Structures are given as structure tokens and as C-alpha cells.
């Protein structure tokens, strides 16, 4: 499920990139040159490509939230891979706390490694 949603997200992102690249530049920003300003010009806000860009952007937001929800709930392909790893982690002994002396005996003396 997660894999399908990620593939769908990639396809939608590519489509959004194409929608943005196909659109006509409005002449603002760095490309305006500053000489003649088209500030009060007519804008075509009802353009199909612009509306499509907003729809694809909203779809990307919904897809990312869905991927996050499904991944956190443990559904999909990632749950199978995590279960075997979790079983291995459960079987390994946990490290002892600092000190590690639970039987109230004196710690063993280290071996004498100096030459005589």
C-alpha cells in the first residue's frame, strides 16, 4: 500500500512539474527588467493549467498525509519487513546497566599482564 502511494506521489509530482513548465510566464519577477511595469495588467486567473497546478498541489498534500498515516499505523509492505527485524531485536539480550554487578560480590580482579 505504501509503495503504491509513493509511486502515485512521484507521478503526481512529475505531472505538477510539467504543468508548471508548460504555463505562460506572467512577466513578473526577475524577468521583468524593471523598465515597464505590467502591474495593473489583465491576468487570466481562470487558466486551466493554473487550476490544474493547484489541484495537483492539493493532491500531493493529501498523498503525503496518507503515506504518513499508513506508515505510522504499520500497514502496507513495511510492516512485513519490520516484524522479522523486531523479532531479532527481541531475542537479543539487553546490555546490563552501568556497574552490572547484581549478585553483590566483589568484581573480578584484572589479570596481571606486566612482565617480570
Helix content: 40-55%
Mean pLDDT: 74
Strand content: under 5%
> How many E-type strands?
0
Q: Which residues sit in consecutive blocks of at least 5 with pLDDT less than 50?
A: none
Reported for the largest beta sheet, the result is: none
Number of helices: 3
The run of helices and strands is HHH
Spatial separation of the terminal alpha carbons:
69 Å
Q: Which structural class matches the secondary elements?
A: mainly alpha
Architecture overview:
With 116 residues, this protein is mainly alpha-helical. It contains 3 helices and no strands. It has helices at residues 2-22, 48-73, 77-91. Helix 1 packs antiparallel against helix 2. The longest helix is centred in the middle third of the chain and has 26 residues, at 48-73. The model has no long low-confidence stretch (mean pLDDT 74).
Features of the shown structure:
mainly alpha, elongated, 53% helix, 3 helices, 116 residues
What is the element layout, followed by pairings?
Elements lengths: L1 H21 L25 H26 L3 H15 L25
Helix pairs in contact: 1-2
Amino acid at each position: 500500500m505504501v509503495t503504491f502511494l509513493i509511486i502515485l506521489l512521484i507521478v503526481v509530482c512529475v505531472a505538477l512539474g510539467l504543468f508548471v513548465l508548460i504555463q505562460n510566464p506572467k512577466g513578473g519577477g526577475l524577468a521583468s527588467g524593471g523598465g515597464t511595469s505590467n502591474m495593473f495588467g489583465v491576468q487570466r486567473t481562470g487558466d486551466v493549467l493554473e487550476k490544474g497546478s493547484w489541484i495537483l498541489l492539493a493532491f500531493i498534500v493529501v498523498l503525503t498525509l496518507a503515506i504518513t498515516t499508513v506508515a505510522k499505523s504499520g500497514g502496507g509492505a513495511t510492516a512485513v519487513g519490520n516484524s522479522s527485524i523486531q523479532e531479532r531485536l527481541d531475542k537479543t539480550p539487553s546490555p546490563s546497566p552501568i556497574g552490572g554487578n547484581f549478585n553483590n560480590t566483589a568484581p573480578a580482579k584484572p589479570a596481571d599482564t606486566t612482565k617480570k
